[in-house]
Amino acid sequence: MAKLNAIGLDEAKAADLSGRLNTLLANYSIFYQNTRGYHWNIRGEKFFELHVKFEELYNDLLLKIDEIAERILTLGYSPAHNYSDYHTMATIKESKEVADGMKAVENILQSFQTIIGLQRELLKISEDANDEGTNALMSDYIRAQEKLVWMYSAFLNN
Description:
Number of helices: 5
Oligomer: single chain
Helix content: over 70%
Largest sheet: none
């Protein structure tokens, strides 16, 4: 019989979920910092439009970072919190192109592709673990982010 954690989930499955959530947390944290950089450094004719959109995005990313960290804690584990760890764990890399709005939007779309892919993997694993809390969180994130992908893609005429 499997050992259960404090919220009634299989301990081994909760450990796997928490590790994958830490990888997601690392990617969100790099994505967040990149978006702050775009907000601070954007230049050009779309400045006013993109400056506001980037602020909306990084505020949303910050909320999700907190929710993911709290979910890891709920599963009984510790969230990663060092950028040195994030750099080794994350697929998303720091952006050097922060002043060009079109390149920033392209980078945002690539980051969403990474994030959504990780969240879809977590959906499968959390379903198998009977972890409705993580499952609902990922499902909510994916739905909202797919809409953002459509909107940012439309901005680029894609």
